[in-house]
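Per-record layout

source: Stegastes partitus
name: Interleukin-1 receptor-like 1 isoform X2
length: 563
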Amino acid sequence: MDALRVLLVVVISTSEWKSEASVSGCKDFDRDTFNLLEGEAFYFVPYSMNKPNRHDEEFTWYRSSPQFKNISSKETERVHYHGGALFLLDVLPDDAGNYTCQEIRPTGKCFNHHVEIGVFSTSYREDEKLTYGEIEDSDDNKEIACPRVVSNTCETLTGNFTWYKDFSLLPGEHEAEMWVENATKDDEGIYTCICTWRHFHKVYNSSASRRLIVPDKDINSDVDILSPTNKVQFADEGRPIKLNCSVYCGKNVAGRCDARWKINGISVSDIHSDRYNQTTKTVIENPSMNTITTAILTIGKVSAKDFEDEFECIGIGFYSVKRTTLTLKQRESIIPLVIGGVFVLFFCVFAAMLVKCFAIDLALFFRPYLPLSKHNEDNRVYDAYVVYQTQKMDKATEETLSRFVTDTLPSVLENKCGYRLFIHGRDDIPGEDRLELVEDCMKQSRRLMVILTPGSGSGSEIPDQCPTSPQAAVLGGFDWQVGLHHALIQREMSVILIQLGDTGPQGYTNFPPGLQHLILKSAPLKWPESSRGAAAWNSRFWKRVRYLMPATPAKKCAQSAIV
Ligand SMILES: *[C@@H]1O[C@H](CO)[C@@H](O)[C@H](O)[C@H]1NC(C)=O
Ligand SMILES: *[C@@H]1O[C@H](CO)[C@@H](O)[C@H](O)[C@H]1NC(C)=O
Ligand SMILES: *[C@@H]1O[C@H](CO)[C@@H](O)[C@H](O)[C@H]1NC(C)=O
Ligand SMILES: *[C@@H]1O[C@H](CO)[C@@H](O)[C@H](O)[C@H]1NC(C)=O
Ligand SMILES: *[C@@H]1O[C@H](CO)[C@@H](O)[C@H](O)[C@H]1NC(C)=O
Ligand SMILES: *[C@@H]1O[C@H](CO)[C@@H](O)[C@H](O)[C@H]1NC(C)=O
Ligand SMILES: *[C@@H]1O[C@H](CO)[C@@H](O)[C@H](O)[C@H]1NC(C)=O
């Protein structure tokens, strides 16, 4: 027993001696660094260590900084080591520091294993310092492996894995690695594996996180030239112009999408001229990831030569190249256009004025050619029935009236224009029944021509309001009445109002209401007796009368029916 003890002491002292003797000759391994969360547990075997499960005597753990501290190998200690493995249970902020394990092999070889430990509170758990590298590959299915320090812990200490994504539990994941299938942007985040392990009947957690990044998919499409869309672009000589060559290459393919201009087959970048300036820019639109490269060719001052050059927009994608040509064209000056427009406007106004002035002449001119005028609207005998006042007029008016009715009117309308008129006093056949005659002739007339004289409506002479007036007035009144009746009530004939002389101060107010109504509908034509040429059949007055008369004179053949 004693011998054994002595032997042991000898062994220990030899090893101590050895360790002291060889400290200077120890081989230092690179330092590993770990950042831990407060409250968790840390189990670590230096990666540089071959066989950690040897006697504790072969290892010495200590903390070199911030203060030197021996580390016990008693397993009940919160911080201890066992073999080559370091245990930090319920990590405290004070545990941060540099730790070293001196390993002295039985062969006498000495190694120093270094580890630096940082301690963070849980509020730092998303911090980059606490994640073990990013997973960023282009595979559809991503494997997320629990970082080695934690998976080693679980393997060695037979712990259980649980997985979290962004710190919420992923149920059913209990392996050292997990898979994210068909990863999308939604799968991005921090994946944490927690190893839950037992040590002397107590449960401890060790966790490690990694960030998953799902890169955007890149899709190379056939190149599509978005601009220019036309073969010709207008330009002004002497002014600057920008030509836009815009090319679509696909999704997320920056670096594989190029656009450029060529002039007469030579790349603009090879033309050393101050006249051209090309800028190129690639844009990836969000969120579509559409990649569009635009080359803008600026010509500082367009010259005549540019109108002959051929500009070519070239789009270069991963799979294809497309090109489209463009030529410049002198922009048409706007001045001739404006002049033309003004001219057309003037012409239209002029034409409108002409039409307005000569509307009646035009109507009369085209009348024979219009289809409506080809046939007579009816078989009536007379074109117009002429009524006028025969009583209570001053001498001058009476003369004017009689001249107009017996001379001017028939000479123009009948002799020159071929109309047939029924004129009171001229066409009455003596002895015939007046009332019947008036009624019949009225029915056989297509227009009622009313000659208004200054006295037509005045005083008690209003024919249809004067039952006690002498015979002529009664007859005249009957003509009026029948005429107005036909015109107003039966609407069989339209009325032509002709006025001789002035109406006087009272205007038309003295006329019977029916006549006033007609006057309101169409103003009477004034007979300009005193003006020169008024009597000529093509004077303005007669044109207006003819315009109101039927288009074609009544048929002569029907005449016998009444006479
Ligand atoms: C650490 O241990 C060594 C030998 O075991 C001893 O010499 C040293 O004094 C100890 N240091 C402290 C700070 O306890
Ligand atoms: C660990 O050692 C390094 C280098 O010697 C030093 O920069 C660092 O501050 C130390 N860490 C701690 C926590 O003392
Ligand atoms: C992943 O995508 C493949 C093919 O698109 C499909 O067959 C498979 O079911 C998908 N897997 C999951 C987990 O959605
Ligand atoms: C691990 O899981 C097994 C089975 O579910 C259980 O028996 C064991 O106690 C768990 N270990 C720890 C450390 O929680
Ligand atoms: C340890 O991890 C388990 C499983 O993830 C969890 O249920 C438990 O709350 C954790 N314990 C501590 C002290 O964080
Ligand atoms: C160039 O053309 C593209 C496609 O028509 C358009 O989206 C872009 O705004 C244009 N760029 C310039 C500077 O005109
Ligand atoms: C070309 O255009 C860019 C941007 O418009 C400008 O910064 C640059 O100075 C121009 N280069 C020349 C040579 O004119």
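summary: The pocket of 2-acetamido-2-deoxy-beta-D-glucopyranose (ligand 3) is lined by residues 181-182 (CB under 6 Å). Residues 422 and 441 are 7 Å apart (CA to CA).
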